[in-house]
Design a protein that fits this description.
Length: 190
């Protein structure tokens, strides 16, 4: 058991040692060669090397064989300028056409949205108008019934007030008769 663990750790230490050695080598490779005050010189050299590599890649893309002092750019400049001008004009016209089309679509979409909103508003207004008409007819019907009830009540009150006058007169005559009779009885008793 102990021997198996020792062998497993020994195998992993070898891999670990190789990884640390790789990291150390790459760290030293990335460091500048000169001492700190002269590091600027190494950075300038790295910049120049990077520019030459980029120039070489550009020359490989354009297909020329020897790029002596930007000669490939000079030989292509006459034809490239014409092609570039044509390409720019075509792309500019395409862009403007697409922009006009988008504006027209936006305008038509806005008009359609406004039309839909107006239709919704008009249907809503007609619904409200219909509701107001229904409510007005209901109120008119209620007023008619109230008016008929009021007329009936007034006629009943009028009819009740006339007999009550006659009954009041009859009551008064009865009371007067009763009072005279009671007066007569009192006189008789005395």
């Amino acid at each position: 058991m102990f021997n198996f663990t020792f062998v497993a750790v020994q195998e992993k230490t070898d891999i670990h040692w190789k990884w640390q050695r790789f990291k150390l080598i790459t760290e030293y490779h990335k460091r500048p060669v000169l001492a700190p005050p002269f590091i600027i010189i190494s950075h300038i050299i790295l910049l120049v090397i990077g520019l030459f590599k980029k120039l070489r890649k550009m020359c490989q893309k354009c297909g020329c064989t020897g790029c002596d002092k930007f000669s490939c750019k000079a030989s292509q400049s006459d034809t490239s300028i014409d092609e570039l001008a044509i390409w720019e004009s075509v792309k500019g016209e395409d862009y403007l056409a697409k922009k006009r089309q988008r504006e027209q679509e936006n305008t038509s979409r806005k008009l359609q949205n406004n039309e839909n909103r107006l239709l919704e508003i008009s249907t809503h207004v007609t619904r409200i108008e219909q509701q107001v008409r229904e409510e007005m007819t209901a109120v008119k019907e209620q007023l008619k019934t109230m008016q008929s009830l009021l007329v009936a009540t007034m006629s009943q009150l009028h009819q009740q007030s006339q007999p009550s006058r006659e009954s009041n007169v009859a009551n008064m005559t009865r009371q007067s008769q009763l009072s005279t009779e009671s007066n007569v009885e009192e006189e008789d008793l005395q």
